[in-house]
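Q: C-alpha cells for this one, please.
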Amino acid sequence: MGTRSFFDRLEPHFVNGGKYEKYFPLYEMVESFVYTPKTVTKAAPHARSFIDMKRIMIYVVVATIPCIMMAFYNTGFQANAAMAATGIEPSGWRAAVLSALGIGFNPDNVFANMAHGFMYFLPIYVVTLVAGGVCEVIFSVIRGHEVNEGFLVTSMLYVLILPATTPLWQVALGIIFGVVIGKEVFGGTGKNFLNPALVGRAFLYFAYPAQMSGDSVWVAVDGYSGATALAISASDGYQTLAAKGMTWWDSFLGFVPGSMGETSTLAALIGVAFLMLTKIANWRLVAGCLLGMIAFSGLLNIIGSDTNPMFAMPWYWHLVIGGYAFGLAFMVVEPVSASHTNMGRWIYGALIGFMVVMIRVINPAFPEGMMLAILFANIFAPLIDHFVVQANIKRRAKRYV
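A: Here is the predicted structure, written as C-alpha cells:
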C-alpha cells in the first residue's frame, strides 16, 4: 500500500462526521506536509503559482541551512577554542558522549567542532518543537482549523537567535510565550502583527537578562567569559576588535561569539539571496533596511563623539556584528508582520535600519538593537501601509478634479 493510499484510507475518519473529526488538524498537518493540499487554486483570477503555504515555509527553512551549519560549527569551535586556551576540562553529558565516541574537542578539527555544536543545538530545537508544537496543536484543535504551518519557520528562527547556553526550561517558556502571545491570541499565522520568534526572544531577554546577556552566555563553557564584538565596540571602540582577535572577516564569516545562528553574515546573505530569487522575500525591504542603516550610521560618523566610541563605527561593521545580518535576512523580510505596499516596504525597511543604529549607538546600555528595531517596526507597519494607501487615493483623486 502506497503512502497516498494510506492517507486516503485514513481521511474519512478525520473529516466531518468521522470518528476522529475533532483531530482533523493533526491529520491535515501531516498529510499536507507530505503532499500538496488539494485546495491549491489552478485558475484565474486567484492563482499566481501552484506553490502552497507549507512549501513556502519549507523554502524559508531551506534558506536557513547555511546559518544552521554555522551554528553547529561556530558553537563547537568557540567552546573547543575556549577550553584549549584556558585549560578548562570538558564536563557534563555532552563531554561524556563525545569522549565515548572518540570525537574529542580539538578546535582545529572541523568534525569535532560540528559535533560539539550539534550537541547544544539539538536539545534546544527538540524542546522548541515540543513546547511550541503542543501550543499550535491545542489552538488548532480548539478552533477547528489547520495547524499553522508558520511554526515550522518560527521554531527554527527562534532556536538560531538563542545563546547555546540557554537553559532548556527557558527555551520552552520563551517559545510558548512567542507562539501564544505573539501569534495565537491574534488568530494564528497570517493575523499576527509581531514576529513570534522575536517576541519569545524579547520575553526571555527582559525576564531573564542574566541568561540572555552579559559576557558569560555566548561561549558554551562553564566559567568562561567572552564579550561579543558589539560589547567590545561599545566600551572600547570597534578599532580595538582586531587586537582582541576579531577581524572584520572573522565577523563576516561568523567565527565570533554570539547567538548560535546569528554570527555569520555570509550565511545570512546566502539565505536572503535564495529567498529573493524564489520571490519569497521582497527586495525593497532588504534595500530599505540597508539604506536606512548606511545613511544614519554615516551621519553619526560625521557628527562624531568624544565620549561615545560607537559614533565612529562605519556601516560595514554594523552589517557584520550582532544580529543585523540575520535579522535582515529572515525577519525584516517576513511577509506577515512587514508592510505590504511597495512604498511602505521602503519606509518599513529604512525605519528598521535607522532604529538599529540608533539603539546601538545612542543607548549605551543595550549595544544590540536589531531585535527591538524589528519589533518596533512591526507595530508601525499597518500604520505605514495606511498612510501609503491614503496618499495613493488622494493622488489619484486629484487627477479627476
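A few notes: The radius of gyration is 23 Å. Residues 43-48 have pLDDT under 50 and may be disordered.
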